[in-house]
């Protein structure tokens, strides 16, 4: 089982690392919000060491390293555009409740707005905290490593459209918390991801072959960002 470790990022705001992937835990006045559930393990027990608050989970997307301990929590939110992908990708899916674009998750201490950003997966979301000026971006915004854009459900065109959408909100946040690689990503990365994804789509970037999980994959690096793609 992969071990958990935690880092306090701000008052009532924690990052829970599980080796190569992160969840985030936000403590509200009446409940806690857990963003993703990692690859599996006894996450509930780990969270209960941090807080006694009832926990609601919201999933940035449904890849296996983000929904691993989903069944341990009773209240689970996901964007409906992700439901089909979630059921196809995971062997033991559990019921999810819908969360929609523009929904506000108001914890009292923190207030998150749901932003739909398809591309990495069909129903990927980001969470925007306008007052505290940060974004939780899931896997869609990463620096320091490759964004997985190979296999079913990935879509570079949608990804670019999502990066353009986030660019329109860039005045509302100063940093992005990411699920992999660099914990904190600068907002400038969004433009680089938009540009870089376009260059990969237009086949302007030379690929480097890599072996990943016993699979041959192409790595594309450009404009300070990187993707794995077919
Ligand atoms: Zn991931």
Description:
This protein has 230 residues and is of the alpha/beta class. It is 18% helix and 35% strand. It is built from four helices and 17 strands. The strands form three sheets. A seven-stranded mixed beta sheet has the order 1-2-3-4-5-6-7, with no helix packed on it. Strands 8-9-10-11-13-14 form a six-stranded mixed beta sheet, with no helix packed on it. A hairpin with a 5-residue loop joins strand 13 (175-178) and strand 14. Helix 3 (156-167) packs antiparallel against helix 4 (188-201). The protein is globular, with a radius of gyration of 17 Å. The chain starts with a strand and ends with a strand.
Task: Offer a quick outline of the entry.
The two termini are 30 Å apart. Helices cover 18% and strands 35% of the residues.
Sequence-ordered SSE layout with sheet pairings:
Blueprint: E1 5-10, E2 13-18, E3 21-27, E4 32-35, H1 43-50, E5 55-58, E6 75-78, H2 83-89, E7 97-98, E8 104-106, E9 111-116, E10 125-129, E11 134-138, E12 146-148, H3 156-167, E13 175-178, E14 184-185, H4 188-201, E15 207-212, E16 215-222, E17 225-229
Parallel strand pairs: 4-5, 5-6, 6-7, 11-13, 12-17
Antiparallel strand pairs: 1-2, 2-3, 3-4, 8-9, 9-10, 10-11, 13-14, 15-16, 16-17
Helix pairs in contact: 3-4
Bound molecules: zinc ion.
The site of zinc ion has 7 residues, from loops.
Largest sheet: 7 strands, mixed
- Structural class category: alpha/beta
Strand order of the largest sheet: 1-2-3-4-5-6-7
Number of helices: 4
């Amino acid at each position: 089982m992969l071990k958990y470790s935690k880092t306090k990022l701000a008052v009532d705001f924690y990052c829970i690392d599980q080796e190569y992937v992160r969840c985030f835990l936000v403590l509200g006045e009446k409940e806690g919000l857990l963003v993703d559930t990692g690859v599996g393990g006894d996450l509930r027990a780990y969270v209960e060491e941090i807080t006694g608050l009832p926990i609601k989970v919201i999933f940035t997307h449904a890849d296996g390293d983000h929904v691993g301990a989903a069944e341990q929590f009773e209240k689970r939110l996901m964007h409906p555009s992700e439901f089909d992908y979630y059921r196809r990708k995971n062997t033991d899916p559990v019921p999810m409740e819908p969360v929609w674009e523009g929904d506000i998750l108001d914890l009292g201490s923190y207030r998150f707005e749901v932003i739909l950003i398809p591309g990495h997966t069909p129903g990927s979301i980001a969470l925007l905290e306008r007052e505290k000026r940060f974004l939780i971006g899931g896997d869609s915004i990463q620096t320091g490593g490759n964004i997985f854009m190979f296999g079913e459900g990935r879509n570079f065109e949608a990804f670019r459209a999502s990066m353009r959408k986030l660019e329109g909100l860039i005045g509302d946040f100063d940093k992005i918390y990411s699920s992999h690689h660099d914990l904190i990503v600068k907002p400038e990365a969004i433009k680089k991801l938009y540009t870089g994804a376009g260059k990969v789509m237009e086949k302007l970037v030379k690929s480097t072959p890599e072996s990943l999980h016993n699979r041959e994959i192409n790595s594309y690096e450009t404009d300070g960002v990187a993707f794995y793609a077919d």
